[in-house]
Structures are given as structure tokens and as C-alpha cells.
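Input set for joint prediction.
Command: fold jointly, output C-alpha cells.
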Amino acid sequence: MFRFIVRRLLQMVVTFFGATFVVYALMFAYVDDPYQALAGDRPLTDTQRAALDARFHLDDGFFQQYWHYVTGLLTGDLGETTTGRSIGDLLAEAWPVTIRLALLAIVIAAIIAVGAGVLSGIRRGGVFDTVTLVLTLLVLAMPIVVLAPLAQLVFGIQLGWFPPTAGRDAGLYELLLPAVVLGSLVIATELRVTRTSVAENLRADYVRTARAKGLAPKRVIGVHVLRNSLIPVVTLIGVDIGVLMSGAIVTEGVFNIPGVGFNLFRGIRAEDGPLVVGFVSVLVIVFLVINLVVDLLYAALDPRIRYE
Amino acid sequence: MPGKSPWKVAAASAVIALLAAGCSGTDSDDTEVVPNSISIGIAEPSSLIPSNSIESSGSQVLASLFYPLVRFDPTNKPYLVAAQSITHDKTNRVWTVRLKPGFTFSNGEPVVADNYLDAWNYGAYGPNGQLASYFFSRIDGFADLQSKDPDDDGPEKAPEPRAKKLRGLKKINNLTFTVTLSEAFAGWQSVMGYDAFYPLPKAAFSGDGVLNKEFAEAPIGNGPFKMKGTWQHDEKITVEKVADFKGTIPKVNGITWKIYQELSAQYADLNAGNLDIETKIPIENLASASGDLGDRLGRTDSSAFSFVGFPMYLDKYKDPNIRRALSMAINRDEMTDQVFLGSEKPATSFVSPAIEGARSNSCGQWCEYNPTRAKQLYTAANGPKDIKIAYNVDGGHKAWIDAMCNQIKVSLAINCTGSGLPKLGDVVSRARAGEDIGLIRLGWTMDYPLMESYLGPLYTSDGSSNYYGYKNSTFDSLVRQGSAATSTKQAEQLWNEAENQLVRDMPVIPLRFGQNVFGWSERVTDVTMDLFQKVDIYTVDIAS
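C-alpha cells >
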């Protein structure tokens, strides 16, 4: 197990630098004039340009700029946005609220998906199963750009059950609606995978054996079926973090939550290269860590993987 | 027991999530808010340093923190606010500003002439890279504060400018200073009403000409409100009334500038009663806004101006009849009604008629929709059979460009296509290089309420935003004479004559003038907005 973790950690370092290099190169190719994006419809004078170039090294070549970025990164300095804010501070402000939102979304999605999925799987073909299948189809067909404003309009404004926007210090209640919207992105797939997986395992030999031994149905499902059925679901939940982060770009905008997606979107719109790269670097780390956690969970769920 | 571990993990993560989500209080907002205060939605300002603020969100907040030398009445004439008197010599070159005594910054520092001189010198000094520095360019000695990269494009560093202070600024005594312009300009008093001309306290500077880094997070102004805490980025800026303020006293006790990324989120909050004023109703909500808000929906003129410029450097548009015909082929009313849902007004002049002295229909017949006449003119002048309209795709212009092209197609029976370029910078640089990119989509908002703020930058030969290459020496000299005129009446006359020259030449097609379309909650009354797209913070009141 220990060697497994060390090997994974070493792989993470390589992946991190590879991924950030690619992102940096892409951003470098995309950004051509962030100052103009700042100044709107009015052209900047040469003096202003020169002053800003000196500050952000934007007239240097690609490798020089990348060098500035990597040395800054290794010393913990992520640089400044084109409006002069420290990206480190921005990250520190944005992450907590996004993590809260994402965790809440995952928990809501997982509880609903696993619960309903297991029920559907056991009573395959029944009324409950059919209804959930139709509902998940609906949710799958609805893109988040439609779902988020719709939920805001119906539950936030017309029914008034939830506040229509959340903000940075949002508590559980304010975050509930955005989290449900965000979670709905992954509920459908998670539910369907759980259902299929449960249905498959119900037919497996070891379940038949367990039943034949005369074990209580509760124990058969709770221990024998569920444990094996959860392996694909756990992988999926890990991968879904990525879906949630991209969904957060829309959701955070709609519900005015100044988190990671909100900042990323702004950075892309303002051609703020350093801002985007800074946030993406942390996103890469999050992905890597989550993947590690998923792999470890695998090991917990399936002893055969543990001793590899 | 390995068999139990997945459940433990799941349960633990659920607990962590709920704790994380629930750990911060939800009621902290209510306790912080000043009683009798209102909230106004803005976007995240790019800066709160007056000389670095060129967008409306920053400008809004600054208007509550600072007290300008002059403000503008409903007809956009300047009147004195922080200034006791503003006088000028016969040539309009040397302007003397006397400050009202007794004013202080919110930290207790008295407001003196030096505060203005320091702030303006800081704003004008090239290496500080202030976005609004061009406002100081009329002051004598501005060029000496700038420096140019010797080889035009790195790696050699630009040398230090020749001077650190503007030669044209002179302190006379504690409350008086003079401004010498490099060229006579009758409208200088109006220019000084802009944000870049606010004073900065001594506390703003850590050394001579060096601004404190913390100052930008919590600016100290000479205005009716002061910051409560610091700027909470992406969330809010709270200001509260300054006790015994000497100037005009606003009616509300405080303002929370709530920061939003999306206008539609603001609109949702406005409807749910969580926000008091939204300064711009998003276009997708305009159709339902009058139903949602009823008489709490307001419309006033803004200074925004949308137009399309002809590439005057190309021969195919040389004949003015071609330009007139294209202008007459466009149905402006239909465009503002259908595409903009009445949030903009059709433009039939080259200068916003909301400006003192400007006329509303100077363009006359050339800006009227008349497809038959347009077609006759166009065929007689043998105009190009295929035209393009270049625009930047990041600005949401596609819908109306396409609509306009369709109108041209139908009216003139020629082909018209919108050609999208990624950024405004691409459009401008290709026009400057003399490329045939077709007609050019452009927009403008004024810097100060004077006709010159449109005529000078947009149409003069060396105008900073004249990308389409219009050159007419008669026009240039009329604008210049107007600027140097001794009375505003005379200036306006000359500027109107200059505009007549534009009508004869039609270097651009005027399309639309902007409007502030804003909404407010039931909590507030007397909400008005000015040409600068700012809420008047002095008149707004809490509904009784």
C-alpha cells in the first residue's frame, strides 16, 4: 500500500508540471491584449502600455514568461491580476466557497443517486424504476445554462423558497439551491450506474450463494451487493468533480457566488492569463488528489487492489 | 474492520461537507448594514484609485467617496461643488481654482491645494500606468511625464520621463492653485468634473509620488461617504455617511455597493427584494421588466453612442453619396425596437443631443430611412456590390450587425455580410494598417459633457479614436476654434458648424444613442441616473 501511494505521488508531480505547462502555453497563445480588455472601447497610449508591460512581463517571450511563472509558483508567489490584485489572495478567497458548494453538491447527489439507484436496481421494471428513469432522462437532457436560471426563477423569485443569490459568506440554506442545481449535473449518471450495477450484482453467483446460505435479504443487499456495486459509482463520483467544476462556472455566475468558476470565467473574459493559469493550477492539484483518493477508496472496497 | 470502512468514509465526508457548509453564519450581513442605507448593484470595479478608474462601476463608488470640483446640472452645465471659484484668463489657457475652505478628508486631514496637485501629478506620470492619465494631457508639461520605449518593443526598458511633475500646475496658497494648459480650451471647467480630478489625501502616499498599496483597498476621500471597512472583492463595498460633512448631504445614511458578475443575478435579487437599485436591466429581461417592476423602471439618456465608420482610406467609399445611401438604407427605429427592445434610441446626429448645445436631428434627411432614395443614390454613385461590416465578436454585436446587413440587402439589393474579428484591438489595428475590412463597428461614451468630447476624439484628423481615417482640415479648424472660444455660446456655435461639416461628409453612420434602463425596489424613491451612467447618490431616498 505504501509503495502504491509513493508511486502515485511521484506521478502526480510529473502530471502537475505537464498539465500546467500545457495550460500556460494555451493561455499564452490566447492572450494578446489584456490591457485593451481592461480599457474597453478606448485605445491605450504607448506610455500606459509600456508601464503595464514592465509590470506583467507581457512583452517577453514565451519561455521567459513561463520561467517567471514557475519561479513565482515555487516560491509561493502566483503574481498579480491585470487589475493589480494578488492571485494568491484571490485563490484563498475563492476556494472555500467553491469547496463548500461542491461538497454539498456531491453529498446531495450521492445520497439521492445511491439511494434511488439501489431501490431502482432492486425493483427493476417497477413503477419507481420507470419514473426515475424518465426523470433522469429529463435532467440529463437539460443543460446547466438552462437549469440554473430556471431554478433561480422558480424557486428563488416566484416561489421565494430560497434566496436567488448566495454570495461569499453563504450558509447552508443559501447554498442549497445552487448545490442542488450543480448536483443535478451528475445525479442522473450516478443513479443509472448504481442501478445497473446493483441489478447486475443481484444476479451474481455469490449473491445466490449468500441467499442460499439463508442470510437475511437486508444483509445480502447491504453487505454483499452494495459493496461490489459501489466500485464503479465511487470512480464516477471522483471523475464528477471535474464536471462539477465546469458546472460551477455557470452556477456560480448565476447565483453570484464568487468562487473558482466565477473567477475563471472572469479571467478568461478579461484575458487575464496569470489569473486563469493560477486557478487552473490549483484545479489540477485538486483533480490529482481526488484521483488518488478514489484509488485509495478502491483499495478499501476491493482487497485485491490493495496488495498490488 | 475493512468491511465497514467505505461507510465510515462516506459518513465522515458527509459530516465534513455539512459542517463546512454550515460553519459560516448567514445573519452576519444584517448586523453590518448601516440603518437607513440602500444597496446598489455594480460589477467588480477594476480600481478605486480615481486616476485609474475608467469604467462605470468604479466611477459609481468613487462618486460616493469623493467630492468633485464641479458637478453637472440636469442640462449638463457644470456648477461648482468643492470649488469656491474657477476662473480663467482671457486666452482660456490659465485657469485658477479656489477651493471652499473647511473641507476635510474622512480621516480628518484638511483638503488643500497640494492634495489636488499630488493626485494629478500621480495620475499623469507615465510609469504609474494610470488608465485615465489621458485626461491630464491638456495640462502643460504632460509630454515630459511620458516616456517611450526606444526600440518600440522591448527588451530595452523605456527611459525615465524627463519630469515627475506637471509644469502647468502651480500652488498659489493653501486653497488656490492654477492650471496652465498647453493649448487654450474653453471647456476645461467641465473636464475637471471627471473622476481623475479628485484630490488624494497625504495618507494616500507613502513617499513623494508613491501611492500606498493599502490605499487602493480602502480609499480615503473628501466626499459625503466614507468606507466602512475595506473593499470586499467580488462581494461588496460598504460606505457610510461622514459626520458633519460640509457639502451637499445625501439623504441615505449609507450605501452597500453589491458586486455581481452577471446582470441577470442582479435582476433576480432586485425582484426578490434583496437589492435596491440595478443600474442596467439586462436585455433578456427587458421584455418582462415593465411587468415585473411596473413604475419602478426608469429610463434616462446616457452618453453612449454607437456608429459605423467608413474606411475613408479606401477609394470605393470616396463618393459621399455612397455613404449617404448606406445611411438611408438603414431603419434605425426598427433596429432599436426589435433588437434592443427600446433600450437604445435611434441616432440622427453625430453628437449626443443630451449634451448642452447639441442638436437632435443635425443629420437630417441622410439619417432618415428612405430605401427608394437610397437605392437611387447608390446606383447612381455606382457603389460596391458587396460590403462587409467588421465588428468584434466578444462584444455581443452580432445580432444587430446581422439585422443591419439584412436591411441594407433589402434596401439596396446588394450583398452585405458581418465579418467578426476576435477583439476590438484586431479591428482597430487592421483599420489603422489601411486594410479593407469593410465598414467598422465602433462605440463611444463621453468623458465630459461637451460637444468637443465627441467631435475631438472621434472625427478630427489626429483624434484618438478616429480609426477610419476621416481627414478634413475645415472640420479640424472649426473644432479647434470652438475649443479656444471665449464663451460657451460661441464655442457651441463653432462646434455646431463643425458638425454640419460632418453631415456634408458622412464619414460615419450614426446608429444609436444609449439609454440608462434601470430599476429599483419598493424601499427606495427618487432614483435618477446621469449621462455618465451613474446613480445620483444625493437625491436617492428611502421610501417613507
